Amino acid sequence: MYFHFKNTAIHYRIKGEGKAVVMLHGFLESSGMWDDYAETLSETYQVILIDLPGHGESGFFSFGTTIDLMAEMVNALLDELNIKKVRMIGHSMGGYVTLAFAELFKRKLNCFVLLHSTAFEDSDETIEKRNKAIEMLQAHPELYIRQTIFGLFRENTLFKFSNYKHKMISSALKTGPPYNGYAEAVKAMKSRPDRIHMLRTKVPKMFVAGRYDPVIPENNSFRQIHFLRHGNGIFLEESGHMGFIEEKETTLKLISKFLIDHSI
Question: What is the pLDDT of residue 156?
Fold first, then answer.
């Protein structure tokens, strides 16, 4: 299904009935990353899967985008669906959107989960990496996409998840060329504000990190857990940046229990 926001077609799917759970994917991913999770969670909840702008089957904002604008898009969809209260799960970039939604539309958020994400703004080093990513997307997009996706997993799992990696690469390549939506997403991530204060709010939350995450360093996650209030911080001991795949059963159990515990 599609709805239009800012003259842009946004693709989404709904599975199941009950209390609403919005699931937001990360950079170079799509809502399809959540299919197995949605299959289980939709037995109890109404699961809303959204392709963020420039990803999956959604268009991108040609005039430029921000993380806040993505959050506004999610809110517009909820209004269209007449949904007043949600639980939200965000992986990586989807976590940035979740934090923005938590700040901009706090009355609509029952609880949220951050997977392999960060509430800190980008460091100077990360901003430089983002700038190089934009250059690579313009000059060698397919190479950049392949290298980036392979680099998301724990280093010693090169072959263990190869089928999923190749499936993810194939899906990511379908959006282009050109890959302007990905470049816009990188710009949005680079310019997002610091939202560490959102980890101190009274909204119930769970922060899940990978012990071997190559994107969000372990010390970054430790610092975030230190700020955390009204929630739990958990490390997946065998995961890189893709714990929902690398430790799928454990992650699904954590999410399921969290949603049950905060089902009001």
Answer: 81
